[in-house]
Amino acid sequence: MPKVAGKWCQHCAIGSGCKTYDTRPQQCRAFDCVWVQDHEMAEAWKPEHSKIVFSVYPTTGFIYGQVDPGAPSAWQKQPLLNGLIAWSAKLLEERRHLLIFVGSNATLIMPTGPVPIGPMSPADGFIIRETFTAKGKDYIATRVASGR
Ligand code: SF4
């Protein structure tokens, strides 16, 4: 299915669902977002409420959240942002990361807060560096293009 990340699918009826649900492609049938898979996730994380669809990146196990382009700042609202920060701390214990994408613009969520990366593709990597500022420990994240 030719669908560009961060853009609405041509079959999506915004606010009501898939216009071709009964005949949707296999990729769509096979896809379960993290909210569907994780029965302990609160209702507030359901994509229709949070405006974020979370998926597990297969090769790393990192969690990637794609924000509804119609609500690009949804992830920055409380209590969602604090929930993302707490989630990132739990994932770090497993050496996993949480990234939020608004279109192709990525932000790494760390226990200290959001760390902007900028434009990247989910296939790209990134480097995290620890910094020490007057406010305490912080991080800088830099994209590493895929294929390097
Ligand atoms: S389920 Fe698939 S075909 Fe239907 S709107 Fe979503 S991406 Fe498009």
Please describe what this structure looks like.
The protein folds into two domains: 1-31, no CATH class; 32-144, no CATH class. The chain has a five-stranded mixed beta sheet. Strands 1-2 form a two-stranded antiparallel sheet. By secondary structure, the chain is an alpha+beta fold. The chain is globular, with a radius of gyration of 16 Å. The two termini are 28 Å apart. It contains four helices and nine strands. It binds iron/sulfur cluster. Iron/sulfur cluster binds at residues 3, 9, 11-12, 18, 20, 24-25, 28. Residues 3, 9, 11-12, 18, 20, 24-25, 28 line the site of iron/sulfur cluster (SF4).
Short précis:
The protein has 148 residues and is of the alpha+beta class.
Distance between the termini: 28 Å
Task: Please list the strands of the largest sheet in the order they lie side by side.
Answer: 3-4-5-6-7
Helix content: 10-25%
Give the low-pLDDT segments.
Answer: none
Give the DSSP E fraction (strand runs of 2 or more residues). 25-35%
Query: What shape does the CA trace take?
Result: globular
Number of domains: 2
Structural class: alpha+beta
- Total helical segments: 4
Ligand inventory: iron/sulfur cluster
Number of strands: 9
Order of helical and strand elements: EEHHHEEHEEEEE
Mean pLDDT: 90
Largest sheet: 5 strands, mixed
Radius of gyration: 16 Å
